Amino acid sequence: MRLSIQASLLNVSDLERSVEFYRDVFELRPVGRSDRVAALMIDETNRRQVLVLREVGGPHLRAGRGSIGPRLLALEAGSPDELDVIEQKLAQRRAFSGRRRTGTWQAVVGTDPDRIQVSVSSGLTGSPIALQDWANLDQMVYEVGE
């Protein structure tokens, strides 16, 4: 069976602000829009992968880490150079949290406007992160999203 993640849905407090953030920092292209929902293309080279942002509100909703739902949106970049560009854009927004590096990959971690953590990783050589890297889960899994 060949599966891929088709879409991730994030609840956001301000749709315009979130669309602008993901478009500017990660260069995601808006592909669909309705009253309180927007779809942004992550990748369409093989199968389409889309980030769906849904604006929600009300006094009962708590943003980011305080609610049940995603603790992290993780993306993989095509090269380490792309991580440098993303880090600069996050830093300009005061949304950069830090970097993580292992012997084979590195990641840039930041937060979106609703304090949802976003991580972008790349293999050190620009090759996709290897399967064996997933076999050795490290401390980052416990640190991110807490």
Any overview of this molecule?
- With 146 residues, the chain is an alpha/beta fold.
- Helices cover 23% and strands 34% of the residues.
- The chain has a 4-stranded mixed β-sheet, covered by helices on one side. Strands 5-8-7-6 form a 4-stranded mixed β-sheet, covered by helices on one side.
- A hairpin with a 3-residue loop joins strand 2 and strand 3 (37-43).
- 18% of the residues are buried.
- The model has no long low-confidence stretch (mean pLDDT 82).
Helical amount among residues, as a percent range? 10-25%
> How is the main sheet built?
4 strands, mixed
Please state the structural category: alpha/beta
**What is the spatial order of strands in the main beta sheet?**
1-4-3-2
Low-confidence stretches: none
Q: Please count the beta strands (DSSP E, at least 2 residues each).
A: 8
Order of helices and strands: EHEEEEHEEEHH
Instruction: Identify the overall geometry.
Output: globular
What radius of gyration results from the CA coordinates? 15 Å
The pLDDT mean sits at: 82
Number of helices: 4
Strand content: 25-35%
> Span between N and C termini?
33 Å
